[in-house]
Amino acid sequence: MATTVVATGGKGSNPKTTLYVGGLHETVNEEILQGAFLPFGDLKDVNIPIDHATGQHRGFGFVEFEEKEDAAAAIDNMHNSEIYGRVLKVNYAQPMKIKGGDKGWSHQPVWADADEYLAEQAAEEEFSKLEKEQEDRRKQQVLQQQLQDGPDPMEALEAAAAQ
């Protein structure tokens, strides 16, 4: 059995103690998840985020251990294991990313993205203009080709048949 190496370096020197647990059955709750991971060491926190629209969890949760070695042992033993007939994916949790930089959107002025927005709008307008020009050129080429080829012999036959 392969063992998980615990990284103590990297971004800061914060040891990895929080695990992502994916593939949870809809009947699994925090108590069941805690019971499944408790044999590997002391737990700080167990969290299963709830979807506000449905009121149910979205099939994943987070388990935070006191010790990094306990978290590594839990990954070794619980990754690809089953709970309620569902195969679990257990990995180190990624740190939460705050939208809008380090402090979030609420610390930025309303006009912070105005330049980027205006640049995107100008690029879209230019693209639309080029597409229209290309379509016009294509239509012009088709008309010129029709003029060079002369009248369509089938058009004359169809007109005669319609009379």
TrEMBL record:
UniProt cross-references to SUPFAM superfamilies, sorted A to Z: RNA-binding domain, RBD
Sorted alphabetically, which Pfam families does this protein's record hold? RRM_1
Annotated GO molecular function terms are:
RNA binding
Q: Which CDD domains match?
A: RRM_PPIE (cd12347)
Q: Which InterPro entries match?
A: Nucleotide-bd_a/b_plait_sf, PPIE_RRM, RBD_domain_sf, RRM_dom
Q: What is this protein called?
A: Uncharacterized protein
Q: Which organism is it from?
A: Tetradesmus obliquus
